Amino acid sequence: VFVNEVDNNLANVAVEVALNYVKKNPQLGLSVDMMYVEGNRTDSKDLLQALCSKYGQSLSENRPPHLLLDTTLTGVSSETVKSFSLALGIPTVSASFGQEGDLRQWRDLTPTKRGYLLQVMPPADMIPQVIRSIIIYMNITNAAILYDNTFVMDHKYKALLQNIPTRHVITTIADDRDRASQIEKLRNLDINNFFILGSLASIKQVLESAKNEYFERNFAWHVITQEQKDLSCNVENATIMFLRPMSDSSSKDRLGSIRTTYNLKQEPQITGFFYFDLTLRALIAIKNILQSGSWPSNMKYITCEDYDGTNTPNHTIDLKTAFIEVTEPTTFGPFEIPKGGKMQFNGNTYMKFDMDINAVSIRSGASVNTRSLGTWEASLNAPINVANEAEIKNLTADVVYRVYTVVQAPFIMRDPTAPKGFKGYCIDLLNKIAEIVEFDYEIREVEDGKFGNMNENGEWNGIVRKLIDKQADIGLGSMSVMAERETVIDFTVPYYDLVGISIMMQLPSTPSSLFKFLTVLETNVWLCILAAYFFTSFLMWIFDRYSPYSYQNNREKYKNDDEKREFNIKECLWFCMTSLTPQGGGEAPKNLSGRLVAATWWLFGFIIIASYTANLAAFLTVSRLDTPVESLDDLSKQYKILYAPLNGSSAMTYFQRMADIEAKFYEIWKEMSLNDSLTAVERSKLAVWDYPVSDKYTKMWQAMLEAGLPNSLEEAVQRIRNSTSASGFAFLGDATDIRYQVLTNCDLQMVGEEFSRKPYAIAVQQGSPLKDQFNNAILMLLNRRELEKLKEQWWKNDDVQNKCEKPDDQSDGISIQNIGGVFIVIFVGIGMACITLLFEFWYYKYRNNSKVIDVAESTDQQHGGTIVKNVRPAGKLMKQDSLKDSTKGHNYQNLRTRTLMPNLSKFQPRF
Q: What are the boundaries of the signal sequence (predicted)?
């Protein structure tokens, strides 16, 4: 009885060829009477009825069948045939798909039944095992296995890649309309290794449905077929691993003879010749049993109607041994049959053949080069035999992950000169992780510039949306770990410590002046001091000139004093000036009235100097203490300065949710207060003058909305710079971003302490194996202190940082901008002194050149006087010591000559 299923026409052709071969080769000693039964793969009832009808008919005609040849592939038709043969005890040779455990009706067979219920795996069931060998050799971590109706993979979903850490999807090839989207969906599942099992026509359709970008270096395509023709497809640029079966070299003559003589030319050849060899071998095995007399003479048969579930005939036919001992040569390849041992016949018997592994290069739709890579010998666990190791490694898909990011310095910054077009802290971090995990990546900026927030409809945007849609493998940047994000994506361990929200404002510009020390006192005060200075100097000169006790009016009295000072106008001005300095004014006046004036000036100067010193220190300190906002509370209590976070940022989410929570708490309290079911005592406990729930964040959120949320950090910085003292602007954002902006911009400052602190981590798809790999890598970098070095590099030693002048604070000294005028005073004084020196030199040389006349002294005997000699030139003050007449007793004092005397001989002193 030959049982086949619909659409398996190749088996029908092969069996007919085998019967024809038997007829044309009488030396085989075979005469076959074949009964045909065909059933649908999904219809067991009709198939069972057909089997029972044919079998009952043969029994009624006293022609019981010796063999049931089963070429059903899988499904209920295959299980129906096996159930039928098992129940009625009919010797069976099956070519169904599956290993022993997959043949559900033939599980736990007794040793007797194992002797006549045989299954041989067809080539289409063995060929998929090469995928396992390729994945093991190339260490592939993800795979999509597509197959058409020439392969059956239902039973291989779990067994094919069992105990191999490879994420994989096994699915049938979609129809023409959905094939492109099928490949796109598989790619979105982070799969870049594709295996196609099918006819060359199906393979061609799949390859032509894929986008050109799917043939780049981060993808690998492996096509496997039962046919022996060459691969062709219309793709632009691709290199594909192509596997096809090869016949046994020792059987090539026989294969050619069967093809030409018996016209067995259908494709795939390997399957057609398998059915041919299996049929011929099974028939010869039955003939050998019959000829040897091993067939039971009292063979018991029952019909389907007689079977009650317990009366299966107990046959002792050893079909397995007879099948093994057949010496008829095979056509395509020999049968691999376990002989003895614990390995069972069913699920381990197959036709041996080799798969030729080639690398096919296709350019503009034409195959331009085919290179042999090795072979694979059909087996359940045989490795591939590699002939060109370097070439086969080039066919592996490079591990290239898709990274989406948001530009935010210093974590991510655009840099056309960088290898990936970006630079920053996160890029350096990812490169170090890539060195450990060994992968490559391509990085793109997310279109909306958001890390990811959920709207009222539960829909996400930004990087989170990309990860959910499987369009990204990694989300990189200063991305905060948030509870709602962790419900849809996964985060690695934090790579950056807790980061909070902080405030950035414009740095107040403290006005500086080189002559700021002069602004300590008002102008009228300086004028009054100047007036007091001149008045006191003039008064001191008056007192010294008219006081009889002054030095210039009482020289004889003070002639022996070491300190002699005549307080003329010049000396008075100098005395009052130097009295205001630590040097002191020098010798004080001799008269008491002058000393009282000096003491009064000293007291005045001491008070002025002390007041000036104290006010100068206070004046320079007040400007440094003028900071309008120092915390979030200060910001919330004022209305002069506008403030807002970035639109769509985690800071915006924080304030929005805090405001919503306050509103909900208020509603809860209000409902409790207005609840009529409460007693009067309970309600009185809820009655308060002040709201028990704060509205701080509600007011702040409303103020933010009115101020307008900036859409980018650049816009926020520009708003800060455009703000004035009358209407300032404060930005609320992540402290790391603000800290970097302060380091690179001298006109910005970070205000207050951080709040709502959250860590930064790398985002991956939910359930992605990258999470554990990245966790191990980050912990290794943390132990090696690599993360601290990166922080130092990008927050302290960055080349783009501006070398800003350190702002004055209470611990700093007075800056040169505020006290530099003192040095200017020195240079001005030195300049005036130089000018004065030149004037003195000029005055002495050109103005004071009058002729000096000597006057001789002689004794006038007639008058008993003296004649004055050595009269000084005009314009010079001439002083003489007292001339005393011994006889008259007169003195000459302070004799001054104002003009030159033309005839000094006539000059006579007057007594």
A: none
**Cβ burial, residue 452 (10 Å; 0-12/13-18/19+):** buried
Contact 514, 520 (CB under 8 A): no
What percentage of the chain's residues is helix, strand, coil (to nearest 5)? 40, 15, 45
Sheet with 366-377, strands from edge to edge, namely 167-172, 142-147, 193-197, 220-224, 237-246, 354-363, 366-377, 384-386
* Angle, CA of 63, 65 and 66, to the nearest 5°: 125
Supply the CATH classification number for the domain 125-251+354-394.
Answer: 3.40.50.2300
Tell me the two tokens of residue 892: 């000459």
Give which of 646, 787, 809, 664 is closest to 717, Cα–Cα.
Answer: 646
Look-up of token digits 């002048």: 805
Contact between 439 and 473 (Cβ < 8 Å): no
Whether residue 636 is annotated as binding a ligand: the answer is no
- Residue 87, SS3? helix
Q: At CB < 8 A and 24+ separation, what contacts does 206-209 make?
A: 206/146, 206/173, 206/179, 207/233, 207/235, 207/238, 207/240, 208/233, 208/234, 208/235, 209/179, 209/180, 209/183
* In contact, 503 and 635? CB cutoff 8 Å: yes
Binned average pLDDT, 10 residues per bin, the chain of 911 residues:
90 92 89 89 86 89 91 89 91 90 87 91 93 90 91 86 88 91 86 92 92 87 92 89 87 85 88 93 92 86 86 87 90 85 84 92 86 90 86 79 87 87 90 88 88 85 89 88 88 86 79 65 82 84 80 75 76 82 73 80 82 75 60 81 85 86 82 74 69 79 88 86 76 85 82 83 88 91 89 75 58 56 66 76 69 50 46 42 40 40 43 35
Give the pLDDT score at 798.
64
Decide if 585 contacts 578 (C-beta within 8 A): yes
Same CATH topology for 2-118+262-339 and 125-251+354-394?
yes
CA atoms 496, 500, 501, 505: torsion sign: negative
Peptide bond just before 268 cis, omega within 30 deg:
yes
Tell whether 372 is in a known binding site.
no
Q: What is the CA radius of gyration of the chain?
A: 56
The candidate with the shortest Cα–Cα distance to 409, out of 737, 720, 758, is 737
Give the pLDDT score at 849. 57
Least Cα distance to 505 among 711, 745, 811 occurs for: 745
Q: What dotted CATH number matches 523-556+564-623?
A: 1.10.287.70
Beta bridge partners of 168: 143
Tokens of 18: 């085998």
C-alpha 436/C-alpha 722 separation (Å) is 47
Contact yes or no for 763/474 (Cβ under 8 A): yes
Q: DSSP code of 408?
A: B
Q: Tell me the C-alpha distance between 216 and 186, whole Å.
A: 16
CA 470, 476, 479, 485: dihedral to nearest 10 degrees?
Answer: 20
Looking at the chain, how many residues does it have? 911
Q: Is 485 annotated as contributing to ligand binding?
A: yes
Contact 863/910 with Cβ under 8 angstroms? no
Quote the CA–CA distance of 199 and 704 in Å, as a whole number. Answer: 64
Q: Give the DSSP H/E element, type plus range, for residue 413.
A: strand 413-414
For the chain, domain boundaries: 2-118+262-339, 125-251+354-394, 523-556+564-623
pLDDT given at position 879 = 39
Pairing of strands 859-860, 865-866: antiparallel
Distance of alpha carbon 762 from alpha carbon 494, whole angstroms: 7
Q: pTM (2 decimals)?
A: 0.60
For residue 330 the two structure tokens come to 């095979």
Give pairs for 363-368: CB < 8 Å, separation 24+.
Answer: 363/236, 363/237, 364/236, 364/237, 365/232, 365/233, 365/234, 365/235, 365/236, 366/232, 367/230, 367/231, 367/232
pLDDT (0 to 100) of residue 273? 92
Cα angle 421-427-428, degrees, rounded to a multiple of 5: 125
Can you give the pLDDT at residue 898?
A: 40
Which tokens go with 789?
Answer: 């070095």
Secondary-structure class of domain 2-118+262-339 per CATH: alpha beta
